[in-house]
Structures are given as structure tokens and as C-alpha cells.
Amino acid sequence: MKNWKFKMASTILGSTMLLAACGGGTDEGSQAEENGSATAGEVEGSVSGDGSSTVAPIMEGIVEEYAAVQPGVQVTVGVSGTGGGFEKFMQGETDFSNASRPIKEEEIASLEEAGIDYTEFLLAYDGLSVVVSQENDWVEDLTVEDLKKLWVEDGTTKKWSDINPEWPDEEVVFYAPGTDSGTFDYFNEVILEDEDLVSSATLSEDDNTLVQGIQADPNAIGFFGYAYYVANKDTLKVVKIGGVEPTNETIESGEYAPLSRPLFTYVSNASVKENEAAYDFIEYAIDNAGEMAEAVGYVALPEEEYEKGLADLEALK
Predict the structure, then answer these.
(1) I want to staple 97 with a disulfide (CB 3.0 to 4.6 A). Which of 84, 89, 162, 166 is the partner?
(2) CATH tag for 8-125+262-315 (out of 3.40.50.2300, 3.40.190.10, 3.40.50.300, 3.30.540.10)
(3) Are 81 and 180 contacting, i.e. CB atoms less than 8 angstroms apart?
(4) Average confidence score pLDDT of the chain
């Protein structure tokens, strides 16, 4: 494994990242070789992306490492949610858009209307994690049906005792990603089946806000990407779903169902054709996504998936 200097805590705390490293002398060439940069020479320019907060730990970590390899390239990564990222991508404001769900039909149509051709690249696997406070000593396992009963808005005040009469007769406090989040969309599709989310939920595009709220309240429950649980597992408790806990193994195998999912970045074809810096950064990102995914708490794809991604990128030249 490459010697990642990246630290998980610093990645997750940032909602927007701008990295432009200062010159690094003769060590730059050797570090570029060590980190797998496919481009031998120095590149200059700027690259911009936005999108999923779930993908952010991977992409922002890559940005930090890339800055040491290509200090002449400025890379900005915003975190406005999958939907928010696609909005900027449609406007031609970004070179790539990170997503924790596949692109929607209406987003495809909007990109076609805007004349923006794009390519989808897989980055890693995630297991959307349902978590409670470590002070919660009653919830260990929930079924998909339990989750739906808890999270669907049905006009009632939800209490833990509604799921199990032996649990506290206390109102459940809900935390969830905002409606622009791909994580929200994914949970809505596989758990709520497009019914309304409970109206009392605190929604935020910033997963750290959700983490802090759940940590502080024994009656709280929430969900977000696996890496945010891994980074906070000393203060959060993950809930098994149907008897299966999210782990690297259960996520990769698909046993952690239905909450295992792929993570993506969508790249403007024009950007990588016309902007050498954009091509170089995306090439570096695909080449290093697997190891960074593992470093920050997600699950790498099989190596052949990254090789396919690099081949697809090469074909865009």
C-alpha cells in the first residue's frame, strides 16, 4: 500500500477544500513515481469539482496527495451534495461531479440539453451506515421493515417502544442527510420506497453535523456513509441491519444489503480533452482511488475496475 500521509479527521472536517502545494524540490519526481502518477512531467492549471459529501473523504484525500505530485495544479472540491453537484456540473461550472448514487434520468436530460458529454467512473463501495449514540444500550439490530416504520412520515410521534415494547417509551430523534444528498436519495429508494421521510428529522448536507447530533443524544438515530462511522466509531454505535453489520467484507460481498452501494465521479469529456490539468488529475484520482478509499474507511473496487476506468479515460483523449 502507498504511504498515505492523509489523515481522516482533517478530510472530513472540511466542507470545501482548495489545495495548491508549494514547490517541493527534487523529491517531487520520486514521490510522483511512488504515488503512481502516470504523468512524468509537471502540469499547470486548475481543476474544479463538487458533489457528494460521502465521496468527499476519498476525493479530498486524493487532492491533498496530488498537490505534492503536481504543485502547479490548483484543485478545488466543493461539497454541496450529489444533487447540488450535478446542478453545478449542468451549468458547466465544474470539471467533475462526485456522486453517491447513479445519475438520474432528468439529470441526464439536462446535461444533454446543455450539450455536456460526460463519463461515469466508479471509485469505491460504501455501506450506508445506520448509527445511534453509544449511550443507546437497547438497539443492536433492525430489519428493513423496522427502518421503514421508524423513518416514514405517518403522522405519529415515533417512539422506540413502537419497534420493541421492551425498549424505552421515549421519542426517537432523527438525523438525516439533506435532500440534495445522494445518500438521502438512496435511503429513500431502498428503505422508504419513495414515501416521505419523517418530518421531525434534522437534515444537513454536512455529515459532521449529523455525527455531532447523534453523539449527544441517546435517543437519536441517523445514517450516513460508512467512512463517517469509521471515523467516529469511538463515540457512535453502528446498528446491524437484518443481522449484518457493515464491514469491509460485508460491503464488498453485498451481504450488507440493501445498504451497500457504489460511489462515483462523473467527468466532463470536454474538460479532460481540452484541459491537461483535468486529465492528469482524473487519471491520478482513478489510479489511486482504491487505496485512498481503504485509507479513509471505504472499500476498494477490484483492481480490474480501476484498470477499466483508466482505459475509458484514455479513450477520451
Answers:
(1) 89
(2) 3.40.190.10
(3) yes
(4) 89
